[in-house]
């Protein structure tokens, strides 16, 4: 395409542009990295008059895209902006978002990384980034493998948000004695363990199913602060070096990065306090399935 042709194409596109709408969208763009914006901020950023900036923010306010900050000459995002943001973020597949970051975690610590979700008292792996060790190992945990939620790191990380009342309901009639140590032997033991793990923000445990295997897990949160998944590093003990140091830091950083891409902002949730679970459906068990014995 020649320069002259490109100029004609640009001119054609400009015919359909609405300058006022473009300015309004540019104002919304100012909220990237900040929570409030003032009219002087807008005039400086876009070189427009104060009167024009004020008319634009009033229009955005009337449409629900901005709202005034009480007792301040400033604006913040309104319910319409937040609704659109949440709809977009909810459309993202957590597996697609997590995949590259899980692979980076695997490469950084040199051990297999997983992403899992919870349904009732079962945790199921949705994604695995296998280490070179696991690729040649007889101990391979395929995607779709299920485990008792209380006995594995991803599972317990996904119990962080549940209150004692919700834990009582979830584990009513659960047979804790069907699983060997180091899985918690009772609901009381599980609650005590969760209290410690919530304070730390992560779970570190040895496998209840495979000898000399360790894992470190942390929750992944969405834009509303709900723990919708968890990730872990889980592999042979000799690969999990410094579990409460560098490996733990890498897992927490990866969980935070995935959560951030899903819209989570730490200031919106107190992570060390139990929260309401995402919904009653997460407390309903999956269809009967074999519980894996190779985690």
What descriptors fit this protein?
295 residues; alpha+beta; Arc Repressor Mutant, subunit A; Beta-Lactamase; 2 domains; elongated
Q: Can you walk me through this structure?
A:
- The termini are far apart.
- Strand 7 and strand 8 (227-236) form a beta hairpin.
- It is built from eleven helices and eight strands.
- The longest helix has 19 residues, at 243-261.
- With 295 residues, it is of the alpha+beta class.
- The model is unreliable at 268-282 and 284-295 (pLDDT under 50).
- The chain is elongated.
Arithmetic mean of pLDDT: 79
Which CATH architecture of the largest domain? 2-Layer Sandwich
Q: What series of H and E elements makes up the topology?
A: HHHHEEHHEEHEHHHEEEH
- Give a quick account of the main beta sheet: strands, pairing sense, barrel closure: 6 strands, antiparallel
- What is the highest CATH level, the class of the largest domain? Alpha Beta
Task: Calculate Rg over CA atoms.
Answer: 24 Å
In helices, the fraction of residues equals 40-55%
Give the termini distance in whole angstroms. Answer: 58 Å
* CATH topology annotation of the largest domain: Beta-Lactamase
């Amino acid at each position: 395409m020649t320069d002259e042709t490109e100029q004609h194409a640009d001119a054609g596109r400009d015919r359909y542009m609405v300058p006022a709408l473009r300015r309004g969208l540019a104002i919304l763009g100012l909220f990237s990295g900040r929570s409030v914006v003032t009219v002087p901020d807008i005039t400086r950023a876009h070189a427009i008059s104060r009167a024009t900036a004020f008319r634009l923010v009033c229009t955005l306010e009337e449409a629900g895209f901005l709202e005034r900050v009480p007792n301040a000459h400033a604006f913040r995002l309104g319910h319409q902006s937040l609704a659109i943001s949440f709809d977009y973020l909810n459309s993202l597949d957590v597996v697609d978002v997590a995949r590259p970051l899980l692979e980076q975690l695997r490469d950084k610590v040199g051990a297999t990384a997983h992403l899992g979700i919870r349904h009732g008292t079962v945790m199921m792996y949705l994604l695995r980034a296998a280490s070179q060790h696991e690729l040649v190992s007889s101990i391979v945990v395929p995607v779709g493998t299920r485990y008792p939620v209380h006995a594995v790191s991803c599972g317990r990380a996904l119990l962080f948000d549940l209150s004692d009342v919700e834990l009582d309901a979830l584990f009513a009639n659960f047979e804790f004695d069907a699983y060997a140590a180091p899985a918690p032997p009772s609901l009381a033991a599980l609650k005590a363990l969760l209290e410690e793990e919530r304070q730390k923000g992560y779970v570190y445990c040895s496998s209840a199913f495979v000898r000399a295997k360790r894992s470190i897990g942390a929750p992944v949160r969405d834009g509303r602060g709900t723990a919708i998944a968890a990730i872990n590093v889980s592999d042979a003990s000799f690969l999990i070096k410094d579990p409460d140091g560098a490996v733990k830091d890498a897992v927490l950083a990866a969980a935070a990065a995935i959560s951030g891409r899903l819209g989570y902002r730490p200031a919106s949730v107190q992570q060390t306090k139990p929260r309401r679970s995402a919904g009653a459906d997460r407390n309903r068990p999956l269809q009967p399935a074999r519980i894996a014995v190779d985690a």
